[in-house]
UniProtKB/TrEMBL annotation:
Organismal lineage: Bacteria, Bacillati, Actinomycetota, Actinomycetes, Kitasatosporales
InterPro entries: Tscrpt_reg_PadR_N, WH-like_DNA-bd_sf, WH_DNA-bd_sf
Name of the protein this chain belongs to: PadR family transcriptional regulator
Domain (Transcription regulator PadR N-terminal): residue spans on this chain: 7-78
Amino acid sequence: MSIGHALLGILESGPRHGYDLKRAFDARFGQDRPLHYGQVYSTMSRLLKHGLVEVEGIEPGEGPERKRYAITEAGVTDVERWLTQAEKPEPYLQSTLYTKVVLALLTGRSATELLDTQRAEHLRLMRELTRRKKDGDLADQLICDHALFHLEADLRWLELTAARLGQLAEAVGGTAR
């Protein structure tokens, strides 16, 4: 996710302080990974440098001065361009799971055990996401669905790999266990 573009999009509804930007981001996108304040301010500094936001006002605070940021026309144009571009699909051609399976085969360790352990972890997370989805709002449901679909694809790969371990062991010069 582009944090900068998300913050710019939030600013389209009106100027905000860094603290307010963090709260709005976390409420909409940061359920699992809230932003750190440092990320907000370093991102805003970069956006300011590139002319995508401007400081609309500075107010004294209990600590440092509070800057109120506003999106510029260039920022609106940048968000529009970003929203209309398709995201590059990630084919995961060099996955960590594949690497672990091959290394297990090459080192004489149990690839079957590795796949079973991974399958159990995927199923655990799928159960957790399914519970979260039941109790969540529409945004949470859509986020959970996205993750669940990816986990289902991983599970299919795990099953296929388990069925082909003997062939893979031969191909990489290892031993199937």
